[in-house]
Amino acid sequence: MSTAAERVQHEGLRGKIMSAAQAAEFIADGMTVGISGFTGAGYPKAVPTAITEKAQAAHAAGKPYKIRMITGASTADECDGVLARANAISFRSPFQSDPTMRNQINAGDAAYMDVHLSHIEPQVRAGFFGDMDVAVVEVAGITADGKLIPSLAVGTNVTWLQYAKKIILEVNAQQNAKLEGMADIYDSIGLPPNRQPLMLTEAGQRIGSPYLACDLDKIVGIVLTDASDRNSKFAEPDEMSKSIAAKIIDFFSHEVKMGRLPKNLLPLQSGVGNVANAVLAGLQDSPFNDLVGYTEVLQDGMLDLILSGKMLSASATALSFSPDALQRFNDNIDALRSKIILRPQEVTNNPELIRRLGIIGMNAMIEADIYGNVNSTHIMGTKMMNGIGGSGDFARNSFLSFFVSPSVAKGGAISCIVPMVSHHDHTEHDVMVLVTEQGLADLRGKSPRERARLIIENCAHPDYRDQLRDYFDRAEKSGGGLHTPHLLTEALSWHQRFVETGDMRVK
Amino acid sequence: MSTAAERVQHEGLRGKIMSAAQAAEFIADGMTVGISGFTGAGYPKAVPTAITEKAQAAHAAGKPYKIRMITGASTADECDGVLARANAISFRSPFQSDPTMRNQINAGDAAYMDVHLSHIEPQVRAGFFGDMDVAVVEVAGITADGKLIPSLAVGTNVTWLQYAKKIILEVNAQQNAKLEGMADIYDSIGLPPNRQPLMLTEAGQRIGSPYLACDLDKIVGIVLTDASDRNSKFAEPDEMSKSIAAKIIDFFSHEVKMGRLPKNLLPLQSGVGNVANAVLAGLQDSPFNDLVGYTEVLQDGMLDLILSGKMLSASATALSFSPDALQRFNDNIDALRSKIILRPQEVTNNPELIRRLGIIGMNAMIEADIYGNVNSTHIMGTKMMNGIGGSGDFARNSFLSFFVSPSVAKGGAISCIVPMVSHHDHTEHDVMVLVTEQGLADLRGKSPRERARLIIENCAHPDYRDQLRDYFDRAEKSGGGLHTPHLLTEALSWHQRFVETGDMRVK
Predict the structure, then answer these.
(1) What predicted TM-score, i.e. pTM, was given to this entire model?
(2) Is the omega angle on the peptide bond into residue B99 within 30 degrees of 0, that is, cis?
(3) Which of A239, A412, A426, B114 is in Cβ range 3.0-4.6 Å of B387 for a Cys bridge?
(4) What are the chain B neighbours of A429 within 8 Å (beta carbons)?
(5) Do the interacting molecules here have an ipTM over 0.95?
(6) Which residue of chain B is at minimal alpha-carbon distance from A400?
(7) How far, CA to CA in Å, does A474 sit from each of A488, A491, A507, B501?
(8) B447 and B370 in contact (C-beta within 8 Å)?
């Protein structure tokens, strides 16, 4: 592997190599900073810590120092974590999953705007988030003619590089130099009224350049790093996940039999996490071949489908692997380079493409209600967990949209099927199939009351079915409208009971 | 004007001319029937009444008779009205606005699935609503070679004609014969994995044929009619509507000044109703020229912008005029034919085009909450009003998405700004600007608590501001999460209070 210094092949840029502390000098209190990174991949490893040190020094001197930080999606402890612990973030968008950042948000110490991941780039370019003072972007290298080799996440980098007034690059020697050529950077979406169609008609096509580009004069510093991504380990699929996966795969078989899905299905999107990973692992032993992936984050399960030959190609905006999977990826990168396409998240999550390609979207949820509304973000209605991410981009525009969850949490004290969700991220209009380990509810073409009966009987945990039936029965008899019967005084009472007693069950 | 019989120019089809009662014989109990019509335009005028008579006869004989009815959007009394009064509809989708149909839905006598208007066609074609037995479609005429001239609404007709097993046409002599050439029928969206880009880059372009087409062998009956559309009268813009319109137009000016909107704005979408109409009327005297319309339903206000030369062209899926405006339309149809483009609703409302073109979406709401969630469909959480229509298609994908409403209803007894909406149609992620006669709240780039303060101070009626501030203050102090502070026991209490006392105000 080459060193980070060797990867700065553009002669003119070599003079801009500096320490992280020097680079952080470009970042002042109150600035809006665009940071690279998507699901623990491709985030800057050194500059955030240097910013943190500046913040700590300022705070110790009784001076204010906070930045407004906008990323692709989640980063890791070396970025969100260190900055949040130093109380150095005043505003955060569009997605996070760091424990300290989350606590800051829920304590009211940092403002957070939870944004659809396909919306953040165009809205920043349109000026809706104000100026972007500095972009800090990790790359795998800089070519002799000044083109940037993307690292394991493309995310929002195209827009940050275009829109920020100044650019700091981190060149990370840990990122495989052979990533060169894997990305497909289409950087011409622009703003209306001058937009053109995105000319992708298959998930595996390429329409852009393998390189990120920027005005080299905006680069104020280049920082060399040699540090690995977050590389979280996945749990082996457990019985719960396997059960959910099996139900989805059975459903696929049924849809193929009914002529509503092609034999090789349609391009698969899979949310982040163990259940999503289990669904993909389950496809390994399924009757489906020649699969195609079109997803935000490509994780272990999809990698293994490609390596086994079950999946022909996959498009993503980030590669987020466990340490073992990263090894398999690096070992096979020459074969994988043409089969995996890394795109900007504005392309990956674009409604135009999700609708046209007919994606099968599968995302995790916190809870669903009896009418099929889904909460993906809030704990008990008030506390932010992570964010909506791309789940709304995919659910809203997919050919089929699934939401999955175990039917209970906290040892049974929380039902994931409730009378009314405590926060709405995906409305009844956008949710087609709910799946728990108890069963699957196919909500397509059904009225709210038809959906309620199905969800209660098929998806709810047996411990909660009587309680849900009782709510629904009494709501139907309460004298309100019978389109979406509710008891307004009890709709959120399950959450209140949990807050007060630690259990949603009526004793 | 030609008679309806003269408008059936295809010789082979003349033999299929029959009475509405004869045509209704093809429609049996339990069938799924695709009906044309969008916002009181282009719906069949005769066959629904004939179906009603069949239903009444069956019911009188103690036999079941109900159909499953899927339309473009709302129809009128001669369609939804007569069928609902005869209790002849078991299932209705995707949108309705008829008083009797609404009562049937809210009494639990008819199942209703409220669907995004861009979703209904692809989901029907994909088989998610089962087979479509018969389509009943109004046209303005049939050419000698068997092509169909669309009437004042294209709506879902492309898909109904393609997908239904049998077709009944109503040829309506009241529809202007000079409509020939106004429509742009692109009928090749199809199903994944074989979809192509929609090659529209400007709202005024044409990419299809002026005619609807179908397999002529599927036509089982042609019914001749001579009846006008619903043609509801608009109220003259009142002070309330003018005030809301003025605030939106000021906001446009500000955005142009800030460089975030072009001088001629971006293509305008406007929801149905008096406030929407007032916004368009307000643009007549605004400094903006060379406007472009891209909307679902083109109503009086947009017609007059075109007639005055303020607007260059407008794309819609239906033309729904007051009687006076219809006269102006017919008087000027030769000049309007190239400036107005009637498209299938699947094209008009397509996320691909709404996103690409950068639409400014303006839609009415029933209520919004302090965090920017919007309810467009439900009264007090349980009763269906009309449906989400295309508001979700536009809000979700527009460059700017506005929701407008007077700040109070029922003489002040209902606040349109509430702690939590009683039904969620548009989530906090999809709502950019709220406008009431009190003021405008620009929610872009803001966290939930920042939004709450703005919405309470700018949009709520003064009678409710203290009550909202009190809720928000106590929610912040309640010990829950401070990302989206709520009091779970009170979040829906304003609606409950209205149900119990007829007033949301705390006495």
Answers:
(1) 0.98
(2) no
(3) B114
(4) 114-116, 119, 388, 392, 425
(5) yes
(6) B123
(7) 11, 12, 19, 21
(8) no
